[in-house]
Amino acid sequence: MIKKYIILLALLPMMAAAQTVKSPNGNVSLTFSLSDKGQPTYEMKYKDKQVVNPSHLGLELARDKHASKGMEETDLMDGFTVKSTQASSFDETWRPVWGETATIRNHYNEMAVNLHQPSSDRDITIRFRVYDYGMGLRYEFPQQQTLNYFVIKEEHTQFAMTADHTAYWIPGDYDTQEYEYNITPLTGIRAVIAKHREAYKSNSSTTVFSNTGVQTSLQLKTKDGLYINIHEAACLNYPTMHLNLDDKNLVFESWLTPDAVGRKGFIQTPFNTPWRTVMVSDDARDMLSCKLTLNLNEPCKIEDTSWIHPTKYCGVWWNMIVGTKSWSYTNDLPSVRLGVTDYAKCKPNGTHGATNEEVKRYIDFAAKNGLQEVLVEGWNEGWEDWFGHQKLDVFDFVTPYPDFDIKMLNDYAHAKGVKLMMHHETSSSALNYERHLEDAFSLMNKYGYDAVKTGYVGDIIPRGEYHYSQLMNNHYQHVIETAAKHHIMVNAHEATRPTGICRTWPNLVGNESARGTEYEAFGGNVAYHTVMLPFTRLQGGPMDYTPGIFETRLSDWSQNPSFVHTTLCGQLSLYLVMYSPLQMAADLPEHYEKYDDAFQFIRDVACDWDDSKYLEAEPAQYITVARKAKGTDNWFVGGKTGEEARTAVVRLDFLDKGRKYDCAIYQDAKGADYEHNPKAYQIIHKTVKKGDVLKINEARGGGFAVSLIAK
Ligand code: NOJ
Ligand code: CA
Fold this sequence. Notes:
CATH topology of the largest domain: TIM Barrel
Strand content: 25-35%
CATH superfamily of the largest domain: Aldolase class I
Distance between the termini: 29 Å
Number of helices: 11
CATH class of the largest domain: Alpha Beta
Helix content: 10-25%
Largest sheet: 11 strands, antiparallel
Bound molecules: 1-deoxynojirimycin, calcium ion
């Protein structure tokens, strides 16, 4: 099954003229040249349509005392000559530990351009990998006397657009991606950011850097129907890249996240930068099925992966987010000093969520409904002043509150075949978390936890650092690798946006790093939000979106005035549309008990797949996907629409010939609408076969879910 070959096609000396490399099927072509000034330049085409106009590549170095002597004097921007060029091909099929498909093909043609800068006597390589649906490029710095330690002032990788495309974007921010998507022409970005820049500051930690800065993955659509997506892959030991738009010339340029004092990367050669990627197709479905970001990451580095498992879970969580319960144990304390504050002397506040009784209730619910884990937040000392003070020693991650009996609860869960999921809110004190990490993971090993949800709410400590800086990216990576040693899966919230690292480290089973369901309790997410995320945020890896809210009008059961901007069936569709090996049933057990027939879908749905077929897709409008459950002949289909009601057309061509399937369709009932009538649903049972066509109505903000169980 696994096939791999590399052919060295050519070693071409001293080529100054333009050189082109085409993708295996020829649809994508990339041309490299040097400008008159010796600036590396590339352009990209798809089926003879220009995708990226000639764009410069290069790095500006900081005049920094930490660079090796002489390194700071000459930028790596121009004055280059081509020493040699190597062309090769690669074709491999690999098996992800978990994923949307059982196998992934990594098939590309490569061109490595070896450049020399005579004025500094330095060599660098720019490597291009060209796929049928896009390309990746990166800078490589071999170790050499003349290029050893250096500090980056800015990376200047350009993506020159051909026209004023439609952009689906969120503002460039060094700290957060928890935004709703704007849909404007490229020339419309500036006015939107300028208008909201002050308002953006109200989130817990934000740093918007420019009125034309946007984040990746950036989805674009051209007037003649091309879908273009710009992102990065394998961002390791490097700051996260943003894009800043020159909106007169329609040229995006990389804009790296700085450290606390403005430097953008400390490099020691040999070093390769992350890949800068452009995906392209004339079919929006290809944007979702293309695995370019994963393919540009290194193969799995964990030898024994048997302990990594896709997981459905519930949690002591939504009550805290909605405001009906608290993470904290007491209201007696104006502040906490860990190890000094005596919680035994404090009066319980009566709203603490993570009590023995409540956790047992969730464990019982999980056991009864086939959910493997129960997340418990607010189990540990420190939550009374966890946020807002840039407090260094905020949690120790090992001391439970008096009403959370860690041994008893884990024993209780294990006896029922369920595991507890650990929660480590760091409050962004990464320094503190690293100090406690070994003890925290050892405690998890002792009690039998195998997954941790981490969190980085608030401004980073070391103070002045940003969530997406090189130092913080190294921190998240350190946590992932340390967790792997302890056989712990990681789901990191508010961490840097993912770039496909889960291929190399599949214990990174999830990230938040976008606006998740929690915002439905903080005022709401636009109805098209989850029809955008698969095109953008999910390009880098799965999201712990925490779907499954059935009581969508929060004021029906709490003081919270917000409502969830989907129908109940829209929530069910997210288990398919928002691919993740980690799926939460986020609502309260008592709400699921009220709608037990609809909850059946969450009980049934898989979260690991042998195959996935995107049937319909258009950014911000609709996504319909069919997935085959791992190791079975059963399929599940999900469809989600944005603001517009529509009819999905599901052709059951993917079913096995000659076979019958029990089909259950969970769909918006007549009159359903996310604002006015969100819980109107109907469940239709029938028998279907290959070739049948299902036409399913989706309400405004609605969706549907289908299970197809082979007879
Ligand atoms: C923000 C996370 O996204 C949320 O899931 C969590 O409950 C809170 N932080 C508290 O850690
Ligand atoms: Ca969050």
